[in-house]
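Supplementary notes for students who missed Thursday's class. We covered one full example, reproduced here. Read the sequence, then the structure, then the short commentary at the end.
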Amino acid sequence: GRAIPDQREQYSGKYSLRVTPDQKFNANLPNLGVKIRENPGPGEYRYLTFAWKKTQGNALCLQIAHDGKFGPGPGGGREGAKFRYHAGPGEECFGASLQVSDKLPAQFVLVTRDLFIDFGEFTFTGLAFSPVDGQSALFDHIYLARQLEDFELLKMGK
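Structure (token representation):
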């Protein structure tokens, strides 16, 4: 897949990220390596928010790299944690993902998740933007927060 800035459609700001199938990923993004904790201290987080959009196909997926790798496995998080979110009527993406909606988001939809509840404690090291099938998908407005109220600060900057 390819990832390119798209200034025609965005949830916030001037650009979104348009990704073509299958996916664009990096399990070790420079300077990410942040700890996800139940009670985050300075430099630690618990919540993730992002916006996504896709009009055709059966699924789209956002994968969370943990400890330098994607998908379920030992080394961080709870046993059986999937470390992926998907939307659409299709099967779980890459054999293991949490479905956040059974419909593709035809317009930008904001998704907010509690990473600790979903996956346990781990070190967040990268992302995979995965349109999976059909047409490209758009991703935008990706933020981490220590507490849900922190996301309110984003509204002030819109």
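Commentary. Residues 66 and 120 are 11 Å apart (CA to CA). The helical segments are 115-119, 152-157. If anything here is unclear, bring it to office hours.
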